[in-house]
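Hi again,

Forgot to attach this to my earlier email, sorry! This is the prediction with flavin-adenine dinucleotide bound. I've pasted everything inline since the attachment limit keeps bouncing my files.
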Amino acid sequence: MKVLVAVKRVIDYNVKVRVKPDNSDVDLTNVKMAMNPFCEIAVEEAVQLKERGIVSEVVAVTVGPKAAQEQLRTALALGADRAIHLETDEVVESLGVAKLLKKVVEDEQPSLVLMGKQSIDTDNNQTGQMLSALMGWAQATFASKVAIEGDTATVEREIDGGLQTLSLNLPAVITTDLRLNEPRYAKLPDIMKAKKKPVDTRSVADLGVDIAPRVELVRVELPTERQEGVRVGSVDELVDKLKNEAKVI
Amino acid sequence: MATLIFAEHQDGALDPATARVVAGAKALGEPIDVVLMGHQIDGAARQAAEIDGVSRVLVADNEAYQHVLAENVSKVLVELSGEYTHLLASASTTGKNVLPRVAALKDVSPLTDVIAIESSDTFRRPIYAGSAIATVKSLDTLKIVSLRATAFEPAGQQSAASIEPVTVVEVSTTSRFVSEARPEGERPELTSAGVVVSGGRGMGNGENFKLLEAVADKLGAAIGASRAAVDAGYVPNDMQVGQTGKIVAPELYIAVGISGSIQHLAGMKDSRVIVAINNDDEAPIFRVADYGLVGDLFEVLPELAQKL
Ligand SMILES: Cc1cc2nc3c(=O)[nH]c(=O)nc-3n(C[C@H](O)[C@H](O)[C@H](O)COP(=O)(O)OP(=O)(O)OC[C@H]3O[C@@H](n4cnc5c(N)ncnc54)[C@H](O)[C@@H]3O)c2cc1C
Ligand SMILES: Nc1ncnc2c1ncn2[C@@H]1O[C@H](COP(=O)(O)O)[C@@H](O)[C@H]1O
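Structure tokens for the complex follow:
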């Protein structure tokens, strides 16, 4: 069976975000970029399913600028077999990404689509659910355990109250949570090999999908920063401050 | 023109976040309907009807909705949404599971985790783990928005609004509920607690969380954790506070053995008073703390429990 993994190029999670002086957006010039951490987990899961003999082919896909090819190469180095790059310099919203991915799904007919639960730039947490809905498929978001048997996937999900287990008919969309697995690092020989793996690049403009923005970015600003408070020298002093100064206990 | 709020319930009781979402929705200045989906949820429906500002409560009571599977409930919401300009929910795992599905089916670009409603089409939401706040304007006719409940004060009470059944039944067979494990605690719920005491990797192991419990007992506090503590298996996942865990904003947040990564701060930096207890004088958590105590948590926690 075939698995499609959607990966997104985002700011590296260690980088401190700057806002442009005119408040039009965040400033990403000369900022280190990487694969969204939740997408790394999705790639790892797909590769592990292949290693366990459940999956025969792993296809990575991204929607993004030319530079997003780097993240596809990373996916290939981690074990994906081939990649599809839907290239565009436009900012594409989740709805547009879901529609573009639907096209790819219709072409590729995977039994499973693995995605991250959330991009760490927009913090949207929606594209997987949207693709699933557009396909009329089952979904399991926030997965912390996935077991596949025949044409069913049993997925444990992280929910606010604890853990929920669902059984899905395949094909389905599963989005990954942090504890699903620990992504491996790409080894140098694999990075070299990945350079020879096929990447099919298509221009988004040629796909006939409406990706016109539905949300206008009006303004981006820094949140009001908290002021650093004081150091207390002892537990007694802490208790006193909480009681008599902050009045919270 | 009206607003529809998709509300949650647990063990027959209404999710307390609902009153906060209703309060947020009032800024839209339209009549507010609340829809509940589940099985045998009359009690929760009555609670919803008594939230100040609610015009009508719609109840879709069917065994098929018992576990609020996204495939089922999203279809009902699609059916109902025709009469509304706004569909809101709490930005909980359930809200986030369901609303984007409705949005895709309605060809709408949804907005997640909104913290302020500026006007009927303009909203504010944190991006990049709360490192920036975006003001965004939705161009869709139907706005589909999840609200971060902690950003809104709960609405008060009123005499009960009308409760009406929803007759549409949409059952999907593509997914089935298998089981659910909800750790039962005596403690207040993390996202609505007035005091939260959280432990990080510095706690060393799960057993040591007993030290935090002793402090939490004295304060009637909920207990949270950093991702590192959850990943290491010290405590269950539903205790994780942060960008990708729960967002809390209590009166008092005590961070113990937590370094203060941007991802953790994203989940707690709107707390009113923050206390940090850490043996590393340089730990970034001190930069957001109102009161910082540099010390070994294994000495500080027992003393704190005793002196509270
Ligand atoms: C995509 C992504 C999402 C993430 N989401 C989250 C999230 O939602 N929530 C979250 O918390 N993290 C999240 N993280 C992880 C985050 O980056 C940090 O790794 C994590 O918060 C660190 O947890 P910690 O502070 O407990 O551990 P550490 O950074 O290891 O800090 C431990 C602290 O304990 C102190 N300490 C040790 N021993 C003692 C002692 N005896 N007494 C007192 N102090 C002591 C140390 O000085 C240190 O400051 C995410 C990361 C990624 C990449
Ligand atoms: N531009 C994109 N290209 C490929 N996959 C994407 C893109 N945007 C989002 N995704 C996928 O959707 C997941 C959730 O993203 P989001 O809904 O934006 O938070 C990501 O982890 C990816 O798997």
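The longest helix of chain A spans residues 37-51. Residues A 6-8, 36, 38-39, 42, 62-64, 92, 94, 97, 115-116, 118-119, 122, 124-128 surround adenosine monophosphate (ligand 2) (CB under 6 Å).

That should be everything now.

G.
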